[in-house]
Amino acid sequence: MDKTKPIKEAIKKKKPSKELLNFNVFDSDDDEEDEAETEKHVVAEDDSDEETEKYHKPSDDLAVASDESDFEDEEDATAGGVQKITLNMLRQWELQLNKTNVSIDTVRQFIQAFNSALASISADNEGEQANAGAYKVVGAAAFNGVIQLCVLHLQPAIIRVLGVKPNSSLPLHKHKKWVKVRGCLRYYLGDLIRLVEQVSSSNILNVLLKHLHQMAGMVAPFTALGKSILKRLIVLWATGDETVRVLAFLCILKITRKQQGTMLNHVLKAMYLAYVRNSKFVSPNTLPGINFMRRSLVEMFALDLNVTYQHAFLYIRQLAIHLRNAVILKKKDSFQAVYNWQYVNSLRLWTDLLGATANKPQLQPLIYPLVTISTGVVRLIPTAQYFPLRFHCLQALITLSKETHTYIPVLPFIVEVLRSNTFNRKHTTVSMNPLQFTCILRLNKGQLAENGFRDEVVEQVCGLLLEYLAHESAGLAFSDLVVPVIMAIKAYLKDCRNANYARKLNQLLDKIQESSRFIEQHRVKSNINLELKDTQGVLAWEQQIRNKRTPLDIYYASWLKTHETKKRRQAAQSDDINADYDVPKLKRPAAKTGVPKRNEQGELELFPSDSEDDDDVDMPLVDYDYSQEEEEIEEPQPKKSKRKQEQKQQQQQEAPTEPADDYDEAGAAVDIVKDLDLNDW
């Protein structure tokens, strides 16, 4: 874990007050006078200080400071009833938490220390600091020790306090001793989610979310607290990094299962809205996160299909209303309400959900309205400009047809592309990079004129026809089904002047005709006299053909392997193409790093004082210099005399060169919670 990041990246907080910036409050002269006047127990000063001995004499029973208290003053401070946490105290707590018979008082004390640790970094005034509890956490070492103990030892200690047996299925709040830990546990869970909200480092979030996943069984009795925890987890699930998303989803799933009756409706609605909100823009960078959200949301909807039906019916109806408005009004705003990524990703979500629950009858009545909406979206603007959106909708329909074993008339929409006037025009522009429709819904005029547009359209047509017909190739009526497709491909080949396109479509046509003859031969050999009502007999015959595998099915399997290899090669070569053509890039200067300093006592100062240099305190992450942008783009500059150019080069050579800071190594921010051993998980 990187330990050099500034604290401002790890904790999102306001500027701390001046009272919190002075960690050595017990060393100031004013504090010594106040302690003498109130006659409270203070820490012994160094014996060499003669002036201090005149005004203060420690009591005989004063404990001697432990030599093991690293990064702390050599004191055992208990001023005003607030005890200062030392590393020695943390070691004793760790031993007590690991005992078989853990006392409830020890757990309560440790939860109070955790609350005080959070107060030390989030309190904005003296009032909040005074209400932090009976403990005071000073310094990074004590703060990290409290957090590490909580993450590693608190949950097993609570389990031992409750007396939970290894294979017990009884909920935790049903145990007898639950009443004793209920109050302090509520405060601890609230502080834990508050810490999760403040932390921005992915490494720390991973550790805290794993700990929260362990504590998920203890969230069930707290309904209001559970909603606030789930609300924050849904935000992390929708916007976090890859590992953070996965851990947040696992926490959501576990907490929701523990209290499914009261939380499922709330969670499904919040997660669907978060999915739609964060699927507005699709790019190669955001596509993996959107796919993860869709698949995990399908798993959440599958928990209770009776509850899911109400949500699915409502949201599919909303999609139908938007489509109806676009068909009736025919205005730009109504079209844009349908032809966008949020609408398409919603169709994908419900398609995946209906396909995943095909073996259960609750959601099957929604197949017909969803297919009607998808075909309506394809027909809304049937121009070449929206061919990418058409292919996305057709891919969803083919997936739905395969998963639910339902016949969906997709072939006419695929074949219609071959008769498009725009597609059959000769291209006027040659593009370097191939055009891919994965992250595109709409094409502009420039893209329609490129050769890459026609290449990708033919690739999509062949791929969709292969996928759909390979699935239907074992059907009893396959020979009759492919007659319109064969006629359309032959008509296109008569006018096709591109040898590459003709070769692909001829190869596809041969496999379709071969599979058609294969089905006809088996129908003759079997001498079947099946009626349309005999569903079981038709399914049995088709299963036999599927086990033998048709020529089209075999060809599709080999084509799919080649296609996946080609996609990987294109993704790997995208960076090489940019390098070959010297695409200009904007270089940003490295950030100045602010490494935490140590004071005279060896203590890490997490919050630098206002009196220090402003360059280390309020320096932005990246100090962008627009002059470098102009130099990298190499815009034409006015000519300078040779004498001035030589003087400038001489000054550059004489100037001392400083090594540039590497942001990933030296400039990465330090996590507020350090030294957490991830191997313990």
TrEMBL record:
Q: Looking at the record, which segments are called Disordered?
A: 23-78, 566-681
* Species annotation: Drosophila busckii (Fruit fly)
The cross-references to InterPro entries, in alphabetical order and at most eight, read:
ARM-type_fold, Noc2
Could you identify this protein by its name?
A: CG9246
Q: PANTHER family from the entry?
A: NUCLEOLAR COMPLEX 2 AND RAD4-RELATED (PTHR12687), NUCLEOLAR COMPLEX PROTEIN 2 HOMOLOG (PTHR12687:SF4)
**Main site of residence?**
nucleus
UniProt KW keywords: Nucleus
Q: Per UniProt, what is one GO molecular function of this protein?
A: transcription corepressor activity
Family classification: Belongs to the NOC2 family.
Subcellular location, record wording: Nucleus
Skewed-composition ranges (Low complexity) = 648-658
Report one GO cellular component: nucleoplasm
Give the Basic and acidic residues compositional bias ranges: 672-681
| Biological process per Gene Ontology, one example term | negative regulation of transcription by RNA polymerase II
Q: Where is the composition biased (Acidic residues)?
A: 27-37, 67-77, 626-635
